[in-house]
Each structure stands twice: as C-alpha cells, then as structure tokens.
Design brief:
The chain is of the alpha+beta class. It is about 20% helix and about 20% strand. The longest helix is centred in the N-terminal third of the chain and has 40 residues, at about 5-45.
C-alpha cells in the first residue's frame, strides 16, 4: 500500500504534465499568431509595381512617362468587368480582374488609336477613378482621362466604346458591363435639364430597383510598393495622326525618348490603399473572376504586337461615324 509520502512524486509528476500542456498551448497560440502576422505582412507588401508586367506591358508615352497596357482581348475596355457597391465613400468599383485594386482606384486611363487603352500611374486613391453622367433613367461612366485628353459625350456615337451606359434598373447588378444598353443614345433624345455629371443618387437607384441599397462596409489595407521600375528598354507609343478631333492627345511632347537607350526610372517606396471586401462581396468576385481570366486576359506570349501602324484612314478605330 502506498503511503502519503510515496504518492507525492506522482502528484508532482501530474503537476509537471499539466504545466507542460499549458506551456504547449501558449506556444502553439504564439506560433499561430506569428504565422498570421507574417501572412498578413506578406499579403500587404508588393516588392515592385512591375508585377503588372505579368498582365501587360510597360511603354513610354512622351507626355505621361511610363504607362501600362494590359494583355487583353481586342474589345476590352476599363470598368467593364465588375460591379458597383455603395460605401461610405459613395459608389465604389469592385473589379473581377486581378490588377483591378490598383488600376481602377489610382491614376488615369487614356486611349491611343493603334495602341489601345493604357493606364497612367497615380498616387491618389479613389473609390472609382471615373467620370459620370446621369440622364433620364440612364447612368454612364468612363475612365478618367489623363491631362490634355478628353472624351466625347455618352450620346455621341463612336466606333470605340468609351462610355458604359446602363439602365439604372440594372445599376447594382453583378457583371454590370453585360447590362450595357445596345441601342445608341442620341443627343436629340436627351433632355438637357435631366443631365448631370454625377453618379446616380442612391435614392434614385432604390426607386428604380424597388429595394433598399444596403451600404457595404469595406476595410482598407495598406499595401507597400517598393518602386515603380520598368524594363530597361520599354516600347514607345507612337502618335497616330488620325486621332479624332474630340479625343485630344497632348499637342506638345515634354521629352523625347530614344527607345534604344535604357530608361531611367527613379525608385521610391509608396504605401497604397487596397479595399478589403466582406465575404459576400468576395464570393461575387470569386464567382466571376475565373471566367474573366479564361475569356478576357491573355498571356504575354499571345499578346499583340507592341506597336501597330495604321496607313488606311478607314482603319482608324476611333474615327467618328458620319
């Protein structure tokens, strides 16, 4: 039979076991916290904006410096693949494209016949970097152009789509670009008193869709970008003399670039904002993103030539219809 003195070592041993278990739990919790912090840190840091090269090409535009053009299908246009959400900052664009968090909330978008759409980097964050028109029962938006470039009005017919015009009844739908109205909106059908250069009022949208538009609470996460470096020998955008009168490109070139010489780009570190969507909105993006990747984005090998010269005036894609 064990005496009280003989049982003491077993009590001590149980106490040691309990202490080890508690210590192990704290250790695992500490490891989990460290891994979570490391994952968050890695996710919030981008070594270089040059990662956009995986989705497009960098080029030198004489008036704007380094610009980026995505590798996409020929009829692609900005602010098409995504949907609108109502936030504390107003209507915000939720993109289905992997680079959308950057190129649709910072900078400007320009268009050059023979080259296509290109993005000019910027430092200021916007819920959506677009111009707005609301008229009648329509809402229209177009990417905000860089300085010295302007767009035609939404009701002016052009061969290249600049404005996306939708019925306000469809404004909150997913994949909103698919709801673009097919018939043109002519100037003589637009009552001037109903035209405002603003996004549709949320109350107007609620009346049209006959339900309440609930605000989406988004968080902001800082993403550090170490530099804005590009390849040593970027392509140079060539001016096209057939640029239509209503789409204005800079008349003077601020600097000349010899494409045979390495480009000198100053490296700097920036902290940019990135929207963090709640789970319901994330699921919407995850639902449409695979199709956009499969049908819209193109690999670098399949991308079109960097430069395209147009000799025939009839081939100018942005020539105004008569």
């Amino acid at each position: 039979m064990y005496t009280e003195q003989s049982r003491m070592p077993w009590k001590g041993r149980n106490l040691v076991h309990l202490t080890l278990m508690v210590s192990l739990l704290f250790f695992l919790a500490g490891c989990t916290t460290t891994m979570d912090q490391q994952a968050t840190s890695d996710e919030a840091f981008i070594d270089d904006v040059e990662y956009l090269s995986a989705y497009g090409m960098w080029a030198d535009y004489p008036a704007y410096g380094q610009v980026w053009r995505p590798h996409v299908v020929s009829d692609w246009e900005p602010f098409y693949y995504g949907h609108w959400i109502w936030t504390d900052n107003g209507w915000a664009w939720t993109s289905y494209e992997p680079y959308g968090w950057l190129v649709y909330h910072y900078g400007n978008w320009g268009y050059e016949p023979g080259f296509g759409w290109f993005w000019v980097p910027g430092d200021t964050w916007y819920p959506a970097r677009v111009q707005w028109y609301t008229f009648g029962n329509y809402a229209a938006w177009a990417p905000y152009p860089p300085p010295s470039m302007m767009w035609p009005d939404p009701w002016d017919p052009y061969d290249v789509n600049i404005w996306i015009v939708v019925d306000i009844n469809d404004f909150t739908n997913e994949n909103i670009g698919r709801h673009r109205i097919k018939q043109p909106v002519y100037r003589d059908r637009v009552w001037s008193k109903t035209v405002v250069r603003q996004p549709p009022d949320v109350k107007q949208v609620e009346r049209a869709i006959q339900r309440t538009v609930r605000p989406v609470r988004v968080r902001e996460r800082e993403t550090t970008i170490r530099s804005r470096a590009v390849s040593d020998q970027p392509a140079t955008i060539q001016r096209n003399e057939q640029t239509p009168k209503r789409v204005v490109t800079p008349e003077t070139e601020k600097r000349k670039v010899d494409s045979k010489q390495p480009a000198t780009v100053q490296r700097k570190e920036q902290v940019l904002k990135k929207m963090v969507l709640p789970q319901p909105e994330k699921r919407k993006v995850e639902k449409h993103a695979p199709q956009v990747k499969r049908e819209v984005l193109k690999s670098r090998e399949k991308a079109p030539a960097q430069q395209k010269k147009t000799q025939d005036k009839s081939a100018d894609p942005k020539r105004k219809r008569k």
